[in-house]
Amino acid sequence: MKKFLDACIKANQEIYEYLNTSLSLDDYSYTQTIGAGGDKSLKIDIICENIFIKHLSIFGDIYSEEIGYLKTSKNFKEQYIITIDPLDGSSNFISNIPYYGTSVAIEVNGKVFASCICNLNEASLVYKLDEKVHRVDLFTLENRVYLEETTTNIGIFERAYKRSDICGVFFEKNIKYRSLGAIALSLCMAHSCKFVMFAGKIRDFDVKAALHICEDLHISISPEFLIVSKSSTMLEQIKEIINE
């Protein structure tokens, strides 16, 4: 799968270059298209998606937030599906909040075996292959220092605005968190944060790659919440708060 990861890297490099050298005001505008994820598509969403399709469609069928399911012309013995969020945190992007990226996972017969998440602000890449997670620079591919065993007491609560009741309990119990606006990028930090959680409908585009990267951690998934933590105690505490 090295060729697949190389293609992911090239796609992310092309997107990064576009955002930093070719971006226009028109790219910030909404189209009249409702994407497969249920949101109105930005022009930049579609630009990023087309770049991924160009680089990755030779490896399998595409399932992306904007176009939905795209059957490729390749005839594989097994069914390969590539799930893409072409611009994770697009609301941050159009608001000039520097926290957005991309997310890609490839699976065969329902099993993810490679994933790649890119932070487009700092040109960093997290990918997992052969059960090993790598954190590298997008262009030099040199390893980046990432300390998992930190003493942080901060978690991440994505879409916290949807559950003010939970926010109130967190305040009472002095559970500190941030809400950053890009779920795949946030889940990539679950190895060093106290926890990462997400409120609302969970879509494959948002979490498939990140959950593959975090599969060695404690994970709880329900119709309304996703919780990931390296601490089973923290995970159970949050579940108790949700169920109160």
Present the secondary structure layout.
Elements: H1 2-21, E1 30-34, E2 40-42, H2 43-56, E3 61-64, E4 68-70, E5 80-88, H3 90-94, E6 101-108, E7 111-119, E8 124-129, E9 132-137, E10 154-158, H4 164-172, E11 176-178, H5 183-187, E12 196-199, H6 204-213, E13 218-221, E14 225-229, H7 232-243
Parallel strand pairs: 3-5, 10-11, 10-12
Antiparallel strand pairs: 1-2, 3-4, 5-6, 6-7, 7-8, 8-9, 12-14, 13-14
Helix pairs in contact: 1-2
Outline the structure in words.
With 244 residues, this protein is an alpha+beta fold. It has two domains: 2-137, Fructose-1,6-Bisphosphatase, subunit A, domain 1 (Fructose-1,6-Bisphosphatase, Chain A, domain 1), CATH 3.30.540.10; 154-243, D-Maltodextrin-Binding Protein, domain 2, CATH 3.40.190.80. The protein is built from seven helices and 14 strands. It has helices at residues 2-21, 43-56, 90-94, 164-172, 183-187, 204-213, 232-243; strands at 30-34, 40-42, 61-64, 68-70, 80-88, 101-108, 111-119, 124-129, 132-137, 154-158, 176-178, 196-199, 218-221, 225-229. A seven-stranded mixed β-sheet has the order 4-3-5-6-7-8-9, with helices on both faces. Helix 4 (164-172) links the parallel strand 10 and strand 11. Helix 1 runs antiparallel to helix 2. The chain is globular, with a radius of gyration of 18 Å. The model has no long low-confidence stretch (mean pLDDT 93).
